[in-house]
Design a protein that fits this description.
single chain; alpha+beta; 4-stranded antiparallel sheet; 14 strands; 25% strand
């Protein structure tokens, strides 16, 4: 038996008030929360559905890059002509998330707020120098993810939008779990003039930057520039899908593929 009060606010201000209830939970696309509820691993007193709030939706150009509302679904990002024109690598990333059902229900804000270590979007947030805007403040992408399923969000804080910088070149490559399509290892490479950013997801408890890769690619933006480079396997994830050593190997492989795709 489920015992919670379902609320569907129509403004961000109303949602911010509703989430103050004891043990309240925010509902985005529900791709993580709903299975958690079914397994009785969460018992919220209030379920706050964000789907009726216009402020959380939409894709628009901003400062030469893109600003994407938190409730924008993966499929909308993947199929947006604007995203394909401004940051095509982001559209490609979104198209590779889960299956069609997940892409049509899951939201960008829900994905980054959940901070699953194998999620795809965290790599884009970090590599594309994104800024996460909430109902209270702006958070730099580099500071947003703090650990496994942990972010800089404070209790009751709601993600409003994510603003991505436009790179000169970028691409995302991942070695995916064949069933869930989560990233066993995913690498997003982005070049901004002389600066290169390489963000790795799936390999560790949280997204991280491969600084040695960035230095090599800043000097020579070719896949061959990564020859002989690797990340330390210590501290990387190890499970039934891949050992830490294998994940370390995949980081280099996926980084090379991303550089080749970026062109």
């Amino acid at each position: 038996m489920y015992a919670f009060t379902y609320q569907r606010p129509t403004s961000l201000a109303d949602a911010a008030t509703a989430i103050q209830a004891e043990e309240a939970k925010l509902l985005g696309g529900g791709q993580t929360l709903l299975p958690t509820l079914k397994q009785r691993l969460a018992r919220p007193t209030d379920l706050i559905d964000l789907g009726a709030i216009p402020e959380l939706k939409g894709i628009r150009e901003a400062d030469g890059g893109l600003e994407i509302g938190a409730f924008t679904r993966h499929a909308e990002v993947a199929h947006s002509d604007l995203v394909k024109r401004v940051i095509p690598a982001l559209a490609s990333l979104a198209e590779g998330i889960g299956d069609r059902q997940v892409r049509n229900m899951g939201t960008m804000g829900g994905s980054i707020a959940n901070a699953d270590p194998s999620a795809d979007y965290p790599s884009a947030v970090v590599a594309l120098k994104a800024t996460v805007t909430t109902d209270r403040r702006s958070i730099a992408g580099d500071d947003f993810f703090t650990g496994m399923f942990e972010t800089a969000l404070e209790p009751g804080e709601i993600v409003k939008s994510v603003r991505f910088s436009r790179p000169d070149k970028a691409a995302y490559a991942k070695f995916r779990n064949p069933a869930s399509r989560y990233a066993i290892v995913g690498v997003f490479v982005a070049r901004f003039g002389a600066e290169v950013r390489v963000a790795v997801t799936g390999a560790a408890g949280s997204v991280f930057r491969a600084e040695a890769f960035e230095t090599a690619l800043a000097a020579d933006f070719r896949a061959d520039a990564l020859n002989g480079l690797s990340v330390d396997a210590d501290g990387l994830n190890a499970d039934i899908h891949a050992s830490a050593d294998y994940r370390a190997h995949l980081v280099t492989v996926m980084a090379k593929r991303a550089v080749e795709a970026a062109g």
